[in-house]
Amino acid sequence: MPAPTFRSRVWKDTPKNLAASGIHSDAEAQKLGFRGGFVPGAAIYEHFAAELLNQGVNWLEGGRADYQFRRPVYDGEEVQFAINVDDRTLSVRGLDDDTVRTTGHLDLAEDAPKVPTTRAASPLRVPLERSHIGTIMHSEKVLDVTTADASAALTRFPRDAGGRKRVPVGRWCNAIGLVTEYFACPMTVHFGGRIWHYSPLFDGELLVSHGVITDIFERGGNSIVRLQAYLTTGDGRPIATIEHESVYQLARAKVAAEKAASA
């Protein structure tokens, strides 16, 4: 499929959290030494998807991207977003310190991986460990869209689509939800990933998620889980394939837990 055509643009915006828990909560993030709650990576990606849709690009029907959330964007912080048509990149920079927060590409040469859709195990509700690599997961739900209009207004995500309403992409593109349904992960931080879009998800549609854990590893003291997910509607219409990486145990949280245990 030809890469979607879009226009370069640089703009400023102030990403926000509508509901804050875990690392997205000021209180929890500050306990770990951060200045405040993180805006979810899925919400950051939604800003880019919204921009492309508002340019008239059918991004949710063939767009593909990778993204790396290198440093936090804090709740209510003004940052600079950019998309560049020449090298097909996306980026977010902090305005107060000029640091790179997010990088990525609005094109992928690779085709999407094939995700197993065989019968999944039952949720284990135990802490993640390397023995869980290869675990197949499954979830079915109709997403609550009670606050979808409010969240879409924050990212300028266009909900209306020919008489139907698109579910904001940030509400379903964070595949870590599969892992947190199956395992005990009290706090996760979206680290990066890739996405292949096939069609939008609309209000009221059943979202069926198939997933498999492909790796669990350590980097810089952080424990990271990597997974692949394939999303469809209840009647089998493909929504997206996602490769996802999240920190499921921060190095800072490990140190804090060790200090508390030895106190």
Q: What does the largest sheet look like?
A: 10 strands, antiparallel
CATH class label: Alpha Beta
CATH superfamily: Hotdog Thioesterase
Bin the helical content. 10-25%
Q: What's the total helix number? A: 5
Principal-axis shape? globular
Total domain count: 1
Calculate Rg over CA atoms: 18 Å
Structural class: alpha+beta
Strand percent estimate: 25-35%
CATH architecture: Roll
What's the total count of β strands?
12
CATH topology label? Thiol Ester Dehydrase, Chain A
Name the helix and strand elements from N-terminus to C-terminus, one letter apiece. EHHEEEEEHEEHEEEEH
Q: Report the uncertain regions.
A: none
How far from one another are the termini?
A: 59 Å
Task: Explain what you see.
The chain is α+β, with helices and mostly antiparallel strands and 263 residues long. It has a single domain, classed as Hotdog Thioesterase (Thiol Ester Dehydrase, Chain A). It has five helices and twelve strands. The strands form two sheets. A ten-stranded antiparallel beta sheet has the order 1-3-4-5-2-9-12-11-10-6. Strands 7-8 form a two-stranded antiparallel ribbon. A hairpin with a 5-residue loop joins β4 and β5. The N and C termini lie far apart (59 Å).
